[in-house]
């Protein structure tokens, strides 16, 4: 019995995947990934590279250890991504916290226009999605609002879309 999903193997043979098992090989469903905290610009750069290569948006929570609101928001975001697996059906999300009080962080906050803490900023294809960043704590504390925001970022699937990371991205079709 030959199925339409037969795929050639390197030796010229065909692999036959029964219909019932094909969904397990679907690239659209990826597990969410939780990364270590970011303390340097190089660590952020490396994670955006990894996420871009995997077509998986990277969600970053910009916070500081002394920020009490950040400490309230952090478990909510992490729970939605890690425990409830929000975004996995849409292709998965990466998540990392950026420690703005790290002595090695440099001017990353200025570069990405982080003007308050906490801030949630998504990266797609290494581009900061500045138009969709969340800065209002009441939105981040609202699980339903936050779930919808995460789903929207996950549906982007590593593609730009929130005006990208450049000033002129939306004006000249940059993506």
UniProtKB/TrEMBL annotation:
Pfam family of the protein (one): Thioredoxin
Record-annotated Thioredoxin domain positions: 54-132
Q: Which InterPro entries match?
A: Thioredoxin-like_sf, Thioredoxin_domain
Q: Which SUPFAM superfamilies match?
A: Thioredoxin-like (SSF52833)
- Name of the protein in its database record: Thioredoxin domain-containing protein
């Amino acid at each position: 019995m030959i199925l339409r999903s037969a795929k050639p193997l390197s030796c010229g043979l065909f692999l036959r995947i029964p219909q019932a098992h094909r969904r397990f090989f679907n690239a659209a469903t990826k597990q969410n990934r939780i990364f270590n905290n970011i303390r340097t610009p190089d660590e952020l750069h490396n994670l955006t590279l990894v996420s871009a290569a995997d077509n998986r948006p990277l969600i970053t929570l910009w916070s500081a250890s002394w920020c009490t609101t950040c400490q309230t928001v952090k478990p909510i975001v992490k729970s939605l991504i890690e425990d409830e697996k929000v975004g996995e059906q849409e292709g998965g999300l990466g998540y990392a916290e950026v420690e703005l009080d790290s002595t090695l962080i440099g001017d990353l906050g200025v570069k990405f226009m982080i003007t308050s803490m906490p801030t949630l900023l998504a990266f797609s294809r290494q581009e900061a999605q500045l138009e969709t960043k969340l800065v209002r704590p009441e939105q981040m504390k609202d699980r339903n609002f936050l779930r919808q925001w995460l789903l929207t970022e996950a549906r982007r699937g590593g593609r730009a879309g929130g005006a990208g990371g450049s000033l002129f991205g939306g004006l000249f079709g940059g993506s």
